[in-house]
Design brief:
five-stranded antiparallel sheet; three-stranded antiparallel sheet; 2 helices; single chain; mainly beta
Length: 144
């Protein structure tokens, strides 16, 4: 319930029945990013219990802080970047979509779109499955 209070005024139900803020809903409606978040539920949502492998994230966390990986048959795995003051506002559970591993490293690609045009990408790489604020980062610009 605390999670829902955080979004009072700016939250609404998406067509799939999930709570979203206006910003989240806008992000989900943007072209190829639509659905990129996968199944995300507040912890007290009955559908959260049906997730097999999932990530437990603070609502207001950032860059891997206080994230737990929960996989069937394995102990919970906390991300290395814990101890930040996130989580008292509540948590969500998101279906786990594990990153590919390359020689012990886990890269993720982020993109920037400005005025509907590709403007750049960034590659972040970490030696753990959860990308933190200490990940290696290589920016790339897209010119015309």
């Amino acid at each position: 319930m605390a999670a829902r209070r955080c979004f009072r005024g700016g939250a609404h139900l998406g067509s799939d029945g999930n709570h979203r803020t206006d910003l989240e809903d806008d992000a989900l409606q943007q072209g190829p990013a639509r659905g990129a978040l996968g199944n995300v539920y507040f912890e007290d949502d009955p559908r959260a219990g049906a997730l097999g492998n999932y990530v437990r994230k603070p609502l207001l966390g950032r860059e891997g802080s206080n994230i737990e990986l929960v996989r069937r048959g394995l102990p919970r795995q906390r991300a290395a970047s814990t101890g930040e003051p996130y989580g008292s506002e509540g948590y969500v559970r998101q279906a786990l979509a594990a990153l590919p591993e390359f020689s012990g490293n886990y890269p993720v690609i982020g993109s920037w779109v400005v005025a509907g045009r590709a403007a750049g990408i960034g590659i972040r790489e970490e030696d753990q499955l959860v990308t933190s604020n200490t990940a290696r980062f290589v920016p790339h610009v897209i010119l015309n």
